[in-house]
């Protein structure tokens, strides 16, 4: 109940904001201060600045992408929203060892309808599946962060229309070539479960998963290489 009261206070506070674009620099400064270059989050420190995060969430509450927004503006908005609310959910319950330990009214963080964007309520799963994935860009999977060790790292800056495409490409390449998450050789690959869970996003327009990996991998993978999926580590990314 206490957690829900905290969110209710946030949403009530949102009625005073008026603008046609959110100020992502608020989120950017918070990330830069409390997230390392490797994606480790100082949740204890960030919790002391939760009011700053709430100011950003207030903007997301009141502003949502409109018809005059570019595709990159929309991508940046929804990626930031996903990451900001994930952080908020963790901070409300912190300290915890894993996002799997967090729930609100019996629902996990991906299925609780406490994500408020433009006056509408969503779950994180809806933001990912119904808003981001429908944009048809598989690179989004390497920009959103589920606050876990096996996730692609949380970038310590906010996304903007100007940086979102280049940064997604960089993070995709970084994740695929990180041996902590994927082990790639020409004849065999052991990759994150992420590639299995969202397989349809990586094999669109006739390409195979290996075709997708080869766009970013430092090692050229044979077309007939064997594919295995590694266990996912849900420990908190701190």
Shape: globular
Portion in strands: 5-15%
Q: Treating each run of at least 4 consecutive H or I residues as one helix, how many helices? A: 10
Mean pLDDT: 93
- Secondary structure class reads mainly alpha
The Rg value, from CA coordinates, equals 18 Å
Question: Unreliable segments (pLDDT under 50, ≥5 consecutive)?
Answer: 1-5, 12-17
List the helices and strands and how they pair.
Layout: H1 2-13, H2 24-34, H3 43-47, H4 50-62, H5 71-93, E1 103-104, E2 107-108, E3 115-117, E4 120-122, H6 124-132, H7 164-176, E5 183-184, E6 188-192, H8 194-197, H9 199-202, H10 209-216, E7 226-230
Helix pairs in contact: 2-4, 4-5, 5-6
Q: What does this 3D model show about the protein?
A:
- The protein is mainly alpha-helical and 238 residues long.
- It folds into two domains: 2-176, no CATH class; 183-230, no CATH class.
- It is 43% helix and 9% strand.
- It has ten helices and seven strands.
- It has helices spanning 2-13, 24-34, 43-47, 50-62, 71-93, 124-132, 164-176, 194-197, 199-202, 209-216; strands at residues 103-104, 107-108, 115-117, 120-122, 183-184, 188-192, 226-230.
- The strands form three sheets. Strands 5-6-7 form a three-stranded mixed β-sheet. A two-stranded antiparallel ribbon has the order 1-2.
- The model is unreliable at 1-5 and 12-17 (pLDDT under 50).
